[in-house]
Design brief:
Layout lengths: L1 E5 L4 E6 L4 E6 L40 E5 L5 E5 L16 H5 L8 E6 L4 E5 L7 E4 L6 E5 L5 E6 H7 L2 H4 E5 L8
């Protein structure tokens, strides 16, 4: 299968080229959809083509806002997606978390998820940092790295740890990006 996302509709799009068919799967959120803010605001003036129709908010509205799908070695489709409102959970700023002790975070606009074609289930993974593009490394733990769209954070999920523990806090890590201009 070939996978793509429809950001404004919160869907994973699946193309089966052998069966000559497509399907669109709604990506879930942990919080009720009406509590999850969208980056697609209502238009402030009419469109030449669509008038006052707000294409991204027509029922059923889905704020998941997926981006950048990538396959892992198990055939799962990982992507960035909103799983909740923008306020981070408390562990993102707790000094008990080694990453938060150095660089505490309070808000993130998009987190992570994956779709498992074998089980036909979505798994939502909270992150403290906002996610934008993602890339797997090629070592045994298949760490998944993320950059923020605008922001000083570089984040990752150790997918081996997540698969073994199902603990998103243990699998998550992040650090601030620092431009060292004086070599110290």
């Amino acid at each position: 299968n070939i996978y793509a996302v429809s950001a404004g509709h919160g869907q994973l799009v699946v193309l089966d080229p052998n069966g000559n068919r497509t399907e669109s799967l709604d990506i879930p959120t942990r919080e009720p959809r009406e509590k999850v803010p969208s980056r697609f605001p209502a238009p402030n003036r009419p469109s030449l083509h669509f008038g006052n129709e707000h294409l991204w908010a027509n029922p059923p509205y889905n704020p998941a806002d997926p981006h950048n799908p990538m396959l892992d070695s198990k055939g799962r489709v990982w992507m960035t997606s909103k799983v909740r409102s923008n306020a981070d959970p408390s562990w993102c700023g707790s000094t008990d978390n080694k990453f938060a002790a150095w660089f505490p975070l309070e808000r993130s606009g998009r987190q992570a998820s994956f779709y498992d074609p074998k089980t036909k289930q979505f798994v939502l993974i909270d992150t403290c940092y906002a996610t934008h593009h993602l890339q797997f490394d090629n070592v045994a733990n298949a760490t998944l790295y993320f950059n923020e769209l605008v922001g000083p954070i570089f984040g990752w999920i150790d997918t081996k740890v997540y698969d073994q523990t199902k603990n998103e806090q243990q699998a998550n890590g992040w650090c601030g990006q620092v431009l060292d201009t004086n070599g110290d």
